[in-house]
Amino acid sequence: MEILKNNIEKLCSFYVSDWHLVTMLLPYINKQINCESNIITILENDIEENIKTLIKKLNLKNEKKILNLNWKKSNGIKYTEIQKKMKEMKKNNILNIIFINGNKNYIDMTNANIEKFIKDNKEKYNIKIINCFEVGEFNINMQEILQHHDKILNTSGEKEICDVFEGYA
């Protein structure tokens, strides 16, 4: 399977509100920009105003680059939209970070389309997919989500799942 030739890591993140999500993402994104990572966002809901408001209160070195990311709603479920987004990815050793935010169905469909694109494209990419789930969503099964991810992203950064959820193996 072609997808195995790519370096793909999946992280999950859980948040309770858009403000919590933005508070968690901004320091992480700032750090990743310092590492010259390529960042792509695929969002079910627009969080641009939250980003603008919070970034004014933080002293981040990469403020302009963060504001230049697309924080508006995108239609990640459509394969043609995923193709457009994925063409923004860099090849070779550049880390491509894809933030996906939305309900579980939106995230699952977007991930399926990303995997289809990678399989169809035959290029080699270094990708980190970060799926952001709202914990208030009624259909969310955290155990199932954790089983399909390598790590977790929270307010203190990337962590091993077992370091965040005691007893998780």
Please name the defining characteristics of this protein.
169 residues, alpha/beta, six-stranded mixed sheet, 7 helices
Question: Could you please describe the fold and organization of this structure?
Answer:
There is one protein chain. With 169 residues, the protein is α/β, with parallel strands linked by helices. Helix content is 40%, strand content 23%. It is built from seven helices and six strands, in the order E-H-E-H-H-H-E-H-E-H-E-E-H. The protein has helices spanning 18-34, 48-57, 63-67, 79-86, 104-121, 142-147, 161-164, and strands at residues 7-15, 38-43, 95-101, 126-134, 151-154, 157-160. A six-stranded mixed β-sheet has the order 2-3-4-1-5-6. A hairpin with a 2-residue loop joins strand 5 and strand 6 (157-160). The chain starts with 6 loop residues before the first strand and ends in a 5-residue tail after the last helix.
Please state how the strands of the largest beta sheet are arranged side by side. 2-3-4-1-5-6
Overall average residue pLDDT: 88
Could you tell me the radius of gyration in angstroms?
15 Å
Q: How many alpha or pi helices? A: 7
Task: Give a summary of the structure in a few sentences.
The protein is α/β, with parallel strands linked by helices and 169 residues long. Helix content is 40%, strand content 23%.
